[in-house]
Amino acid sequence: MGEGAGVLAAMLSSGIGGASIGVTRFIAQDLDPLAIGAFRFGLGFMLLFPFALSGGRNWPQRGDWSRVAALGLLFFGAFPILFNASLAFTTAARGAIALSTLPLLTMVVAAVFKVEPLTKRKALGVCTAMTGAALALLAGFSEAPAKAWRGDLLMVLAALCMAIYSVASKPLIRRSDPITFTVVAMGVGAFALTLASSGRGSFEPIRALDSGQWAALGFLGAFGGALTFFLWAFALQRTTPTRVAISIAVNPLAAALVGALLVGEVIRWNLSVGIVAVVAGIWIAARPDSAPDCKAAADS
Question: Which residue spans traverse the membrane (predicted)?
Answer without folding.
Answer: 7-28, 34-56, 68-89, 95-116, 123-142, 148-167, 179-199, 211-232, 244-263, 269-286
